[in-house]
Specification:
The complex is a heterodimer of chains A (243) and B (169). By secondary structure, chain A is of the alpha+beta class. Helices cover 45% and strands 20% of the residues of chain A. Chain A has a seven-stranded antiparallel β-sheet, sandwiched between helices. The radius of gyration of chain A is 25 Å and the shape is extended. With 169 residues, chain B is mainly α. Helix content of chain B is 62%, strand content 1%. Chain B contains seven helices and one strand, in the order αααβαααα. Chain B is globular and about 50 Å long. The chains are: A alpha+beta (243), B mainly alpha (169). Strand 2 of chain A pairs parallel with strand 1 of chain B.
Chain lengths: 243, 169
């Protein structure tokens, strides 16, 4: 059993518990003979205890119990006759109409590029996650297309030469956004966000505008159809060289 | 055990599980309420009363999955503005974990792993029991827990997983 195999198994070990199966028994035996692994396991157990305790202390809202008991007493009509269902259907119709108008409106003040940039940088640094993890750019683009997000956008040659890590599709103020992630020198990730030109109020040029921003570097440009925003920790000159 | 006793006994743990899945208090409350409502309608179908708790957890998880399938045209998450102006915060290496941090860390897990990791932490379920609740094979649960915990560790404890591979065998 390799060290990494033992660790993968020991991740599931709860402190103070007997091993659940033979492979856990073997992994614990490996840890007993390896001081570094034992130290790692003890740190992991500390984390287990803290994390579990914190989750276990979460209290439900004070009125939840009463709401549950009150719901039990109501004899519910069939779903489609419930007032809540009818109200929800009416609300959905209104929302659909509003949504249609919303989709057709030009970008408002609230959809400025400054806000877009701020939100994307925040996402990249705090909440980043990929829908699809693969080095195959074509697979990522297929996922983006299937999700209704920009997918056919061209890439600058320097960026296109980087290994792809994956991507994600999400919405910002109701507008679809694509994220394509690149591996930078095995240590960092470069995040490329792409949004339709009409979905954000941006005055950008075809030549990228590169600058430091909130501790990272960003590059922004447009090809007339979509707006690109590249975010990463390398210095601005490094990003500029890729574009 | 009557309905009120059942609720009193299980609603806090069900709520915690729901919150770990749904990430929002309102949705967690909805899921919890709906689970007990379903119990009220279908309790006669459960033959073994010792399995009530796992039945409730299984039902809540199924409700959660059903709701996920009903997401609209853009099933991706919407990035709201609330966090947009916050300064960038790297993953915390601190030992100070609070409920907000813990829930945020759980929310960042791949959704496939989240339920398994939540059950692993919240309840005293064995891996076979977790597999039964999630209706997946035992091997799948072990893999989801391991991979989910590895992701969690990477988020919560950066720089602490640096053992050199020595090829013990």
């Amino acid at each position: 059993m390799t060290l990494e195999q033992a660790k993968a198994i020991l991740l599931r070990h709860k402190p103070g518990r007997p091993p659940e199966d033979e492979e856990m028994r073997q992994a614990l035996a490996v840890a007993r003979d390896n001081p570094e692994l034992q130290q790692w396991l003890e740190a992991h157990h500390d984390f287990h205890r803290s994390f579990g305790a914190v989750l276990g202390d979460i209290q439900p809202p004070p009125d939840l119990r009463e709401r549950i008991l009150a719901g039990r007493k109501i004899v519910s009509p069939p779903a489609f006759r419930r007032p809540s269902f009818i109200a929800a259907a009416a609300a959905a119709a209104v929302l659909f109409a509003v949504g249609l108008l919303f989709l057709l409106r030009p970008p408002g003040e609230e959809q400025t590029f400054a806000l877009f940039q701020s939100r994307m940088v925040g996402f990249a640094l705090r909440e980043y996650r990929m829908d699809i993890e693969t080095p195959e750019e074509a697979a990522v683009r297929r996922h983006l297309a299937a999700s209704g997000s920009p997918s056919g956008f061209p890439l600058p040659a320097g960026l296109a030469s980087l290994p792809v890590k994956g991507g994600a599709s999400f919405t910002w103020k109701g507008e679809p956004v694509s994220m394509l992630c690149f591996d930078w020198q095995g240590d960092e990730i470069l995040y490329l966000f792409v949004i339709d030109q009409g979905s954000v109020d941006a005055t950008l040029a075809a030549a990228p505008s590169v600058a430091p921003y909130k501790g990272v570097s960003t590059a922004a440009w447009t090809n007339g159809d979509v707006v690109y925003l590249l975010v990463g920790k390398p210095a601005p000159d490094t990003l500029r060289a890729l574009l | 055990m009557d309905f009120e006793e059942l609720v009193q006994l299980h609603y806090p743990s069900l709520y915690r599980f729901a919150l770990s899945l749904a990430r929002q208090e309102s949705e967690a409350c909805d899921l919890t309420q709906q689970t007990f409502y379903i119990w009220a309608e279908k309790q006669n179908q459960l033959r073994d009363n010792t399995k009530v708790k796992s039945w409730l957890f299984t039902t809540l998880y199924r409700e959660f999955l059903m709701r996920q399938r009903k997401l609209t045209r853009f099933p991706q998450m919407e990035l709201d503005d609330a966090d947009g102006e916050l300064p960038p915060v790297p993953p915390s290496g601190s030992r100070q974990i609070d409920a907000t941090t813990a829930l945020e860390a759980l929310s960042q897990l791949d959704p496939t792993f989240r339920a398994a990791v939540a059950l692993f932490y919240l309840e005293d379920y064995s891996q076979p029991e977790i597999a039964s609740i999630l209706n997946v094979p035992l091997g799948t649960v072990k893999s989801r827990i391991s991979r989910g915990l590895a992701q969690l560790q990477k988020t919560m404890m950066p720089g602490e997983d640096r053992l050199t591979e020595r090829g013990l065998r």
